[in-house]
Write a structure and sequence with these properties.
6 helices, disordered N terminus, Cyclin A, domain 1, mainly alpha
């Protein structure tokens, strides 16, 4: 792993390590947190960065942005939900719902849920529970495939 000259970041940070080991994932975008409570805003930034990383590593870089966007929108729609539990679990759940939404994950596909859960360092049951809570907070995520009338990126 090469570190750019002048890097003053923490290499114990998994997002930074992932950036240097998988440069195609790139640096995560900074989520918009204008008007969000300061405590929630800090958690949204953590969740979005890690959602970006989990999706980029497990699903492919095409899904990183949408996973980070789920975290950002969750901060606005149900920010208090992010304060419950581990932000890293919420980040995994963001990537999980994106995988499900795009039909990337199913027991009869190349990426079964238990494999995705293992890749992300968690359990399938935990992700299913958190993903359901996420979908309750953001109802447009309920659709299995993106619909014409939703405003999520395709």
């Amino acid at each position: 792993m090469t570190v750019p000259e002048g890097w003053d970041g923490d290499l114990d940070d998994p997002v930074a390590v992932e950036y240097f080991s998988l440069p195609e994932v790139g640096l995560p975008p900074r989520p918009c947190v204008d008007g969000v409570d300061e405590k929630i805003a800090k958690v949204v930034q953590i969740v979005a960065a890690h959602a970006w990383r989990f999706a980029g590593k497990s699903l492919g870089t095409n899904y990183s942005y949408e996973s980070a966007l789920v975290a950002e929108r969750l901060g606005y729609a149900a920010g208090d939900l992010l304060l419950e539990g581990d932000p890293i679990d919420w980040a995994r759940a963001c990537a999980w719902v994106v995988a499900d939404r795009h039909g990337l994950m199913a027991h009869d596909l190349e990426l079964p849920p238990q494999v995705l859960a293992r890749e992300m360092g968690t359990k399938e049951a935990t992700m299913a529970k958190l993903a359901e809570r996420l979908r309750e907070a953001l109802p447009t995520l309920r659709s299995r495939r993106p619909r014409e009338d939703d405003d999520w990126p395709v």
